[in-house]
Design brief:
The protein is α+β, with helices and mostly antiparallel strands. The protein has three helices and four strands; from the N terminus they run βαββαβα. It has one domain: HPr-like (Histidine-containing Protein, Chain: A, 2-Layer Sandwich). Helix content is 34%, strand content 26%. A four-stranded antiparallel sheet has the order 1-4-2-3, with helices on one face.
């Protein structure tokens, strides 16, 4: 399992467009990918679960991936968050 702590800087947090971009990218990986906020862990490939997580600007979430491409998945998703959900 590969994990990383991510602090959300986007003004909307992980809601609407940022959540859609996150889920779209997460879904391209084979690994199981989760986000944890407090005691709640959700499937990062589910737009409904990501939206109901309620991660706001300044919140730190734990991103975890387990599977064949877990390192690449965490790296790509970390980059997306660090780039403030701007795709390059």
């Amino acid at each position: 399992m590969t994990s990383a702590s991510l602090t959300l800087q986007h003004e909307a947090g992980l809601h609407a467009r940022p959540a859609a971009l996150f889920v779209k990218l997460a879904s391209t990986f084979q690994s199981a990918i989760t986000l944890t906020l407090g005691a709640r862990t959700i499937n990062a490939k589910s737009i409904v679960q990501v939206l109901t997580l309620g991660a706001k600007q300044g919140t730190t979430v734990l991103l975890s991936a387990e599977g064949a491409d877990e390192v690449a998945a965490v790296a790509a998703l970390r980059q997306l968050v660090e780039n403030n959900f701007t795709q390059t």
